[in-house]
Structures are given as C-alpha cells and as structure tokens.
Amino acid sequence: TRLPGLLRSMPKAELHMHIEGSLEPEMIFRLAERNGVKLAYASVEALREAYAFTDLQSFLDIYYAGASVLLTQQDFYDMARAYLDRAVADNVVRAEMFFDPQTHTERGVAMATVIEGLHRACVDAEREQGISAALILCFLRHLPEEAALQTLEDALPFRDRFIGVGLDSSEVGHPPEKFARVFARARDLGLHLVAHAGEEGPPAYIWSALDVLGVERIDHGVQAVHDPDLMDRLARDRIALTVCPLSNEKLCVFPTLADHNIQRLLDAGLAATVNSDDPAYFGGYMNTNFTRLFEQVPGLTAQHAYQLAFNSIEASFAAVADKQRWQ
Ligand code: HPA
Ligand code: ZN
Fold first, then answer.
1. Nearest-atom index, ligand 1, CA of 63
2. Which positions fall inside the Adenosine deaminase domain (predicted)?
3. How far does residue 98's CA lie from ligand 1's centre (Å)?
C-alpha cells in the first residue's frame, strides 16, 4: 500500500453509504435467528459466495434480501452502531448515512421503528465516541413518485431526525426528473437534496439531478467524464461527487480498480470524495476504499489524498464550526 499511514489517519467524512449495506453476513444470520426470519442461504459462507455481482441490479436483488431480517428498533440500532464503530476506527469524523424506508415499510415495519432505531444509534455514538452522525432518507427510484411522496409524508413526524433526502436503487430507466415533485416538496421543507446519478446512467441524468431536482451533491457521478460541458459545470459550481471505488469495481462500472477515473475527476478540479457505498457487500469500509484505490491507481499522490479528505469535510452538511474544527 502507498501512503497507508496518511490515508488511515487523516480525518475524513463519509457522505455516501447505505446503512442497510453495512449488514455483514454474520449479522444477517444473527438477526434472522433473533427474529425467526427464513433466509434463502444455508450459511454465512453460502451467502458470502453469492456476492459476485455483474451490475447494479444483480447487487440490489441480494441487498434487499439481506435487509429483510431487520424488524425491530433494536435491529436498526445494532446495525447502525456496528457501522459507526467501524467508521470511528477509520478516523471518520462525520458520517451521513442513507437509509431506505420503503424497503422496510413495504414489509410492514413502521417508519417510527426504522427512524428511531437509527437516530438513537447516531445520538449514542456521538455521545460515546465523538463521531458526528446524521441520516439522509432515500427514495427507491424503481417505485412510482407517488410512493416517494407518501414516504416523505409518513416521515414528517420525524422531520428533525434526518437532514436530507436522496434517490437510490435501479438507475437506468428511472431518471431524476421522475421525482421532480417530491424533491420540490423536500426543498420546501428545508431538507438537503442529493441523488445517485451517473453510476450506470448517462450524463443526462446528472444534468437533470442538478437542474430539475436541484441537488447539492451527486452520488457516484463518474459517468460525467463523457460530457465536457458537464465537467465544466461540476468544477465551476464545486458540486461534490461522492465516488465509491470498491463499489464501482464490484459492480463492474470499471473493468478493474486500476481503470478508475477518480484522478481525472480530481485533476479537472471536481470536488470528488471517497466513500464505501455498501461496505459489507463491496469488500471494505472507508480506509480499505482509500488504501486499495491508492494501491491500484499509480498517479495518485499525497496531495490527492489531502484533497479527497478536504473535499469530504467541505461537502458535508455539518455545521460550519464543526468543519473548521476538522480541517
Ligand atoms: N446505487 C443505487 N442504489 C443503491 C446503491 C448504489 O450504489 N447502494 C444501495 N442502493
Ligand atoms: Zn449508493
């Protein structure tokens, strides 16, 4: 590994991780047993062997199956505390965690169960470990906009327990503009706005996330390199891209990690960041994403490492005083 000490020790923010994607196979089996949920896999090893993905959809099918073991407030709490422990170990000082309420409410789990469990984990981790943690509610883009609107209304009793909304799940065929009304409503509520765009989808989806939804950050965004005008726009407006190297490798967005375009993004002046996306499924948490990326991409230097850490704190939705303390 190149620059391992620096990469591990620098204070950083994680801005793109799905809390349901932090469920390790061992915890999936433990929760399945605790809740009497039947799994389609016989063992931890058999489940792990199924983690061989060819694209985003092949991952999502297994990811939603894994989340089916989450039933009680304690389950959501335990999952989030386990992730925040790993984040603290990687010198993550700020974590903004996505959660997918529709994955749970569709199975009959109450919105209160999901949000209160996750929120209590954030509060306890902040108090006991000093990490700053916040929640971003994501809409599933393969479902209709009406379902997203209903989800936002259902979450309003807990408005003070999440800082923003995002858009995730199957990208191609579900462009951002499909969710124009629900993002306008979220904006009126004073919520931060982000969306997955340009992971597998075209640059046009990044444009409409910016210009129709009005998002403040783009999740993934690596397909922007195919559109020079878009690259200029992202650089000029310092729109952060929350890039996920190991996710891109595992979902075959790039042939190998060595082919990743993050250096091109940084050298073009874009505010790229490094994130783990779904760490239990893609082979590692924050520092593994950093160290494997810097191992594989030969042109990356200590200057790039500082820039990535700086960008992550700058692009976070933390209070200005906290950002100054971390930088
Ligand atoms: N893309 C879209 N949806 C997701 C992802 C992702 O990388 N991870 C979890 N849900
Ligand atoms: Zn993601």
1. 9
2. 11-325
3. 10
- Which residues share a beta bridge with 12? 92
Confidence check on the interface: ipTM exceeds 0.85, yes or no: yes
Q: What is the dihedral of CA 189, 21, 204, 307, to 10 degrees?
A: 90
pLDDT in tens, 277-311: 999 999 999 999 999 999 999 999 999 999 999 99
Span 11-314 CATH architecture = Alpha-Beta Barrel (3.20)
Q: Which segments are annotated as binding site for substrate?
A: 278
Q: Both tokens of residue 104?
A: 């749970």
> Could you tell me which of 97, 121, 106, 201 has the C-alpha nearest to residue 151?
106
Q: Structural domain boundaries of the chain?
A: 11-314
Cβ–Cβ under 8 Å, residues 44 and 29: yes
| Dihedral, CA of residue 26, residue 92, residue 267 and residue 223, to nearest 10 | 40
204-238: b or e for each residue (b if 16 or more CB lie within 10 Å)? bbbbbbbebbebbbbbbbbbbbebeebbebbeeee
Cα(314)–Cα(53) distance, rounded to whole angstroms?
A: 33
